[in-house]
# Entry
Amino acid sequence: MPLAPSDFVFDEDQALLLRAASEFAQAELLPLDRACDRDDSSIAAILPRLSELGFLNLMVPESLGGIGCAYRTFAAILHEISVWSASASVTIGVHNLVAGIVAKFVREPLRSRWLSAWGDPRNFAAFAVSEANAGSDAAGVKTTAVEVDGGFRVNGEKMWVTNGLSAGWLFTLVRLAGLPPDKNFCTLMIDTRLPGITRTKIEGKMGIRGSETAVVHFADVLVPKENLVGERGKGLETCLATLNQGRIGIAAQATGIAEACLTEMVSYARQREQFGRPIGAFQAIGEKIADSAVELEAAKALVWRAACAVDSGETNRSASSMAKLYASEAANRIAYRAVQVHGGTGYVHECRVEQLYRDARITSIYEGTSEIQRIVIARELAKH
Amino acid sequence: MDYELSDDLKSLQEMARRFAADHIAPHARKWDREADIPRDLVSKLAELGFLGIFIPTEYGGVGLGDLGASVIMEEIARHCGATALMLDAHNALCSAHLIRAASAEQKAKYLPKLASGEWLGAWALTEPGCGSDAAALTTTATLDGDSWVLNGAKQWITNGHYAGVYVVMARNKPDGGAKGISAYIVERGTPGLIIGPKEDKLGMRASDTVGLTFENCRIPKANLCGKLGEGFVDAMKTLERGRITISAMSVGLARGALEESLAYAKQRTAFGKPIFEHQSIQFMLADMAMEVDAGRLLTRKAGILSDAGRPSNIEASVAKLFTSEMATRACLNAIQVHGGNGYTKEVPVERYMRDAKLCEIGEGSSQIQRMVIARHLLEL
# Structure
């Protein structure tokens, strides 16, 4: 079931793209996702296939070899992918998000050079902002950059870096020496092949185990000057500008998980019999299904609205935050109900809802916790 | 599908918003206390076309769809749930049923009077013995020569005290189940139509709600509305579509709760700062704003689909369930934000809460909505 409010929203090309994404995700991503969850292994093995099908440069303009999707189509694709693999959804989402940063903040000729190669798995990208002591409080990052002959010397450590292990590019937030402490944020595109970079896997995540999450250590990494993204001192703004879209991407991941849960619940309730009838015939079960469907619809509506706002060029922070906050918390509630409807079976790994319940949990944490989203919404409200 | 309104609807919204702020907001508390909406407000609403929302222009109405109706209803409900409820029963139940099922002669006779506000419209399905289980209704309609004779009782009829015309669902076939039910048009003043006293309600107090008794109430044969035996289906379709406008009412009430709370929280101080700056209050308001927006989007989606002639029943059910329950949440939290002040009639949020509760009950209770949605998904 697509993210869009109705089937008459997409043109034929877009509809084909969505259908292809959904079919591919079900046929090829799901089995890999389940294996990665079992083994705590990376879904990045599928990168060449993703590249082949265009999932690595979805919003890159056609003139630069990309698919040239509108943002709303991109969000709808992330939703379709997430129905079958939440790990793949965030993997693709983050990589494409960094392309957006390049498109917006990197100057020519580097911009075209990088974007036209974005579909190549060697340019797989990650977002390196958070640190062990700086999550919600992103301004507390301590990774430093010192301007030297030929570039920036970077030292520090980033944590929770999605795509971090296989990435060719790290979009990194640093503090530039020599500028006043509250105005020294900068962002750099760091090539992971540079000497001095060590990457370690964060083991044992509760969910989205197929999505790589890494600690990245920088020891005197010399980054070329031209890899500065945006202006010196404006690094935090550059990051925050991206968050708007990133949040919608996670919201679409959440709606995908929620939809998978709903489908599983409905299917189980139709065929599982107790007391002489399908359990779906009992109101107690029917109500869980109805409430889940309602919340999923509300989540999709909020995500769609936020995605449309991006396409129409408006910066609607409130819309993005509302979408992310609602969709993530709804996905958690829906996953909870899905396990409940499945009874004992839902508590065992063989049943997909067991994993979906664990996958859902991260959505209200990363890309801005629910608490941060509420602060953003309230801040926008206060303006009225 | 974009949820943005067209320029025309934006103008309509602005007009309705100003009207509600100028002519409704200052008086709504008094109307709640006195349990009555003044007749001159009804005239003003008629002048704006709000009594002919769905009625085609050829009958004096403004011929809007569900999206347009939802825009008007949200603005009215923002300041007075009761006025919105009056409009809802008149437009989305009585008038809509006539538009759907009445003959050309019946439409020509009744729709202009409804559109002009000369008559208010009421719609009578529920009985003392059946609400959710509407097909179990027992009011009878017996054909006797050139007349139908109605006997029975209806309950919770909005606009019943003032209406000039009633669309009444009655059983023309004793053992027919849903297929034995037809719809009838009954005019005010018909002998045998007894209008009961106004109910003393928790909320929506200014909206008149009465019981009706039919004692050998004789109406012309020509007053059968729609086909014999199809009254129940027409009623259900009317109700289903009517869920869109009641959703808009809930959104309006919730928005009222939010706007009042936001204003209050910005100026009320505690522990050295406006209470808005305490996360506990701030987060309540953020959640309220989010749910109001989600509710509005769901309502608009249902309206857009309905206006495009696409299936929209489930979307309408989804919107109705979500908006009504979130409105109660919003209003309860609004009282909480206001603290002790919220517990008095000095501020409007307690009235919004009392009004909002009705939306979880009427037009298909939350329990019915869950049943409808579950059945649709489970196909059991």
In short: The beta strands of chain B are 121-124, 140-144, 147-158, 165-171, 181-187, 193-195, 209-220, 224-225, 269-270, 273-274. The interface with chain A takes residues 1-4, 262, 266, 276, 279, 282-283, 285-287, 289-291, 293-295, 297-298, 301, 304-305, 308, 310, 315, 318, 321-322, 367, 369-371, 373-375, 377-380 of chain B (CB under 8 Å). Chain B is about 50% helix and 15% strand. The longest helix of chain B spans residues 231-267.
